[in-house]
Amino acid sequence: MKTIKIITLLLFTTSIFAQVGTNGNDRKEDGRPVKEYNLTIEENEMTLGGVTANAMTINGGIPGPVLEFNEGDLAIINVTNKMDEETSVHWHGLILPNFYDGVPYLTTPPIEPGTTFQYRIPINQSGTYWYHSHTMLQEQKGVYGSIIIHPKEKTLEYDKDLVVVLSDWTNEKPMNVLRNLKRGNEWYQVKKGTAVPLSRVISEGAFGAQLKFWRDRMEGADIADIYYPAFLSNGKKLAEYPNLGLAKK
Ligand SMILES: [Cu+2]
């Protein structure tokens, strides 16, 4: 008797899913197939780069989910803010109505804590793009993800389409990182092993360049100016930061 009940329940559940699925596929607005996503941004503890730190996640992860569309779709994206500060999402590279560009106070209202904002974007292009928070330094805390738009006409032959999101992770508060950079000290270079003593700068005949760096309040060897404890590939730790210490002559 019990078994029969369970089977019925399962069938019932399946039929609900089937219905939702069918409705989702067939739904059209303004003559466009609708593709809808729900994104929830919240603060979570995440263990990244071997250290547990406070992060901001989308649907519980870093990066957020891959949003997949077909050229010609109407993208409906509901973003819920479960944090106690405001947020926003900017759809990087998408051609869209200005109101949905997601730059708070400039084009789009910020998403206040405890509220949901609905973005409605007619998809008129194809390619690989990304989305990210445009509020303060929330992007550095994890609020980013990728967008894939399949072209109307397939031009390449492939078996599988894989998305790899490469990003970096700091356990520090991003605001502190920024403060450190503006202070113009060598903290990150010491951590990376790229700090060069002044005697060496002079012996290499690079004192003029060094003077310019100082004038610009920049440090030498500053191509990647932050020390990151981890680089991530789809949110998984890719590699330790290599020690870039310059070889002694
Ligand atoms: Cu952007």
How would you describe the overall organization of this protein?
The protein has 249 residues and is of the alpha+beta class. It has 2 domains: 137 residues, Sandwich (Immunoglobulin-like); 55 residues, no CATH class. It has 5 helices and 12 strands. Strands 1, 2, 3, 5 and 7 form a 5-stranded mixed β-sheet that branches. Strands 4-9-8-6 form a 4-stranded mixed β-sheet, with no helix packed on it. It is elongated. The N and C termini lie far apart (82 Å). Bound molecules: copper (II) ion (CU). The site of copper (II) ion has 3 residues, from strand 6.
Task: Summarize this structure briefly.
By secondary structure, the chain is an alpha+beta fold. It has 5 helices and 12 strands.
Q: What hetero molecules are in the model?
A: copper (II) ion
Distinct helical segment count = 5
Distance between the termini: 82 Å
Strand residue percentage? 25-35%
| Quaternary organization | single chain
Could you tell me the radius of gyration in angstroms?
24 Å
Number of strands: 12
Q: What's the domain count? A: 2
What are the segments in which pLDDT stays under 50 over at least 5 consecutive residues? Answer: 1-24, 241-249
Q: Kindly report the CATH topology of the largest domain.
A: Immunoglobulin-like
What's the CATH first level of the largest domain?
Mainly Beta
CATH architecture of the largest domain: Sandwich
| Approximate shape | elongated
Lay out the secondary structure.
Elements: H1 2-26, E1 28-29, E2 32-48, E3 51-58, E4 67-70, E5 74-81, E6 90-92, E7 116-122, E8 127-132, E9 144-150, E10 166-169, H2 174-183, H3 187-192, H4 198-203, H5 207-215, E11 230-233, E12 236-239
Parallel strand pairs: 2-5, 4-9
Antiparallel strand pairs: 1-2, 2-3, 5-7, 6-8, 8-9, 10-11, 11-12
Bound molecules: copper (II) ion (CU).
Residues 90, 92, 132 line the site of copper (II) ion.
